[in-house]
Amino acid sequence: FNLPALGVFSLVLLLYLLLVLRPKIEDKVLFWAVCGYTAISALVIAAAFGTRQPLFVLGALLIALSDCIIAWNKFVRPVRYDEVLILSTYYLAQISIGIGSWVLISA
After folding, report:
1. 72 near 79, Cβ under 8 Å?
2. Which of these, 35, 34, 37, 48, lies nearest to 6 by C-alpha position?
3. Residue 95 DSSP one-character state
4. What is the 3-state secondary structure of 22-78?
5. What's the pTM value of the predicted model, to 2 decimals?
6. Backbone phi and psi for residue 79, each to the nearest 5 degrees, phi listed first
7. In angstroms, how far is CA 46 from the centroid of its own chain?
8. What angle do CA 37, 60, 19 make, to 5 degrees?
9. CA 81 to each of CA 13, 24, 64, 72, 96: distance values in angstroms, whole numbers, following the listed order
């Protein structure tokens, strides 16, 4: 893991949770489930930074962006072109991680 990256992204995601999503999520169980998922996302991003493979980092960040768009769309307000934005960031993330894996294995 890259601890500085874990700290930075944990703080950013925590602020997003507390300032943006918490006021919009009324169900406490759902809020804590979102918190758990967010914590796992922060760990994935830190692990990606720890690999020093830029395509893994890009992929992890794009997945987090896709998840943030989903959360905003679900809990805050509808996002215009939500499906296009969510799927394009998610698929670009998968492609990035796949190419990054290929580069890592080929080296």
Report:
1. yes
2. 48
3. H
4. HHHCCCHHHHHHHHHHHHHHHHHHHHHHHHCCHHHHHHHHHHHHHHHHHHHHHHHCC
5. 0.86
6. -105, 130
7. 11
8. 50
9. 23, 21, 18, 13, 22
Give the pLDDT confidence score for residue 1 in this predicted structure: 65
Structure confidence by residue, pLDDT tens digits, 15-27: 888 898 899 999 9
CA 5, distance to chain mean position in Å, is: 13
Residue 53 CB coordination number (10 Å): 19
Residue 71 CA: distances (Å) to CA of 31, 38, 56, 107:
11, 11, 23, 37
Amino acid identity, position 80: R
